[in-house]
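Write out structure tokens for ABC transporter permease.
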Amino acid sequence: MRDKKKAGNANLPALILLAALIMFWQMAAMGINAAYILPSPTQILVRLWELRGPLFTAHLPATMSVVAIGLLISVVLGLGLAILMDVSEVAEKALYPLIIASQTIPTTALAPLFVLWFGYSIWSKVLVTVLITFFPITITVFDGFKSVKTEMEELLFTFGADRRQIFFKLKIPAVLPCFFSAIKMAVPLSIIGAAIGEWLGAQSGLGYFSRRMMTQLDGAGVFAPILLLSVVAMAFVGVVSALEKRMIRWRND
């Protein structure tokens, strides 16, 4: 009961700030009085309700499919690269600059190429998602491995532990907080990546739907799928945070 009360008090400032921002947005939209430029929050909610049929039955599942596949590939790729760079100094020197360089290329420049190569299939959007998402997982987990103190490894070596035992008994538990932090960063980025891919070339999905509403000068229709994406991202991050608290109990003590 005390923990729930403490969590509620911790969320109170965020809720107050959110309410203040929504009120300011509502007043600014009423002052402009041009829904195609700046729709009000109430107009967006009304439009979201009006469009609930196509949004929830067709476009949301399409976007979530891209997010799920892209995030799964990013987790496997990111963890694989982090582990490889941790166990091999040669691999670290070869891969680390390339991983950094991969983030210097504008995604909006590559997305049309992916569409050209793969058409409007799901894989063009998945590649955009992976390109954006694998980076924080790789770097954060790799930094977590590097943060494990050498003295602890040497101590386990003196006790007769081999590299496999050190990896699973020392490094994996030590890197778990970094892994969950990386996933909490990657989830919103995966949704952004899916939306960007759909915006630039798709036949379904929330990003595609938002772009279609823009061509019709429907400001509230543009924001409705964006609001839905934001809610989904926050829900996913909440699920990851709950899993983190269950798996890393010592961090909450």
